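User: Can you recover a sequence for this backbone? Please restate the input before giving your answer.

Assistant: Of course. Working from this structure:
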């Protein structure tokens, strides 16, 4: 056989080897894709597979929806009485309408902080120790801080019109601001690191100490000389006579804001419960990944084995002599 005929014999054989190599690569890619699709994906704590909210669960129930509707009605009636039906005050005039929101919000703030203390005590008591009490305490404190901020805001607006300034270093105003800052600190303590139980214990101690400021705030106008007026309805030793419509509006404000507080607490403590579940799930995933470190993963080894097969075949095929035996 001449040298000019040798390339013609080699070209078909090289073409067959090239097709065989492509077939092995295609089968290897298919096997890798099949193994990859059959592997169980690792999901993080925020994914839909591990999130309790991902399956359509929420914080609302039939009771909370009914309570929310009633609260909307109560707030609408309150707005109607406070802004339209209730007459202006003889001395303060239209400024008295600010007090309907001021009195309602400070009442809810006091109520929220007391509930925080009671729930904290229930958690510290061994017979009733449960993280549910801690979540109620945290939710109530958050709402109390919100309403206390509204109290300070409406009080500043009222003071600007009545006293001519937004802020005075009065005993009642100063102690109220100090109470507000104290519960901001309580929320900061809840945000520190540690387990749920550690969070509950340290925040419960702070809540039981912080609630002692409420009597100090309430009686500050009697303990110290204050420009802030004393209670006009709760005490009988006063000469203040309220119009029946004004008194009804004040009582309606306390009821409406209390309903709003209950609705907020129910939803917020359920949100805190979901957050705790997500934290626990994330910890479980982290521990599982930590335990799996250093262990051979069969599912991960399968694509490697399948992918290495074409290489071995090609290597074996590459050892076939290309020299034409006829020549």
């Amino acid at each position: 056989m001449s040298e000019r005929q040798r390339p013609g014999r080699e070209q078909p054989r090289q073409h067959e080897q090239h097709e065989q190599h492509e077939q092995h690569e295609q089968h290897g890619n298919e096997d890798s894709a099949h193994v990859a699709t059959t592997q169980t994906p690792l999901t993080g704590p925020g994914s839909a597979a591990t999130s309790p909210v991902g399956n359509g669960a929420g914080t609302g129930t039939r009771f909370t929806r009914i309570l929310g509707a009633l609260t909307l009605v109560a707030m609408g009636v309150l707005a109607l009485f406070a802004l339209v039906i209730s007459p202006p005050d003889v001395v303060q005039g239209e400024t008295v309408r600010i007090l309907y929101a001021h009195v309602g919000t400070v009442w809810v703030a006091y109520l929220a902080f007391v509930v925080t203390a009671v729930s904290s005590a229930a958690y510290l008591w061994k017979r009733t120790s449960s993280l549910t009490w801690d979540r109620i305490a945290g939710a109530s404190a958050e709402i109390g801080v919100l309403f206390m901020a509204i109290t300070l805001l409406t009080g500043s607006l009222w003071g600007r019109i009545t006293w001519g300034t937004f802020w005075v270093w009065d005993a009642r105003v100063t102690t109220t601001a100090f109470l507000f800052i104290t519960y901001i600190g309580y929320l900061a303590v809840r945000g520190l690191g540690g387990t749920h139980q550690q969070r509950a214990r340290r925040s419960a101690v702070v809540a039981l100490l912080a609630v002692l400021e409420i009597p100090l705030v309430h009686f500050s106008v009697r303990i110290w000389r204050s420009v802030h007026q004393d209670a006009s309805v709760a005490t009988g030793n006063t000469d203040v006579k309220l119009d029946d419509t004004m008194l009804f509006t004040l009582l309606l404000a306390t009821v409406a804001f209390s309903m709003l507080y209950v609705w907020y607490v129910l939803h917020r403590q359920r949100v805190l419960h979901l957050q705790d579940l997500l934290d626990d799930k994330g910890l479980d995933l982290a521990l599982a990944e930590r335990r799996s470190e250093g262990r051979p993963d069969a599912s991960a080894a399968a694509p490697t084995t399948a992918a290495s097969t074409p290489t071995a075949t090609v290597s074996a095929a590459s050892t076939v002599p290309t020299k034409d035996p006829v020549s």
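That completes the design. The CA atoms of residues 32 and 303 lie 5 Å apart.
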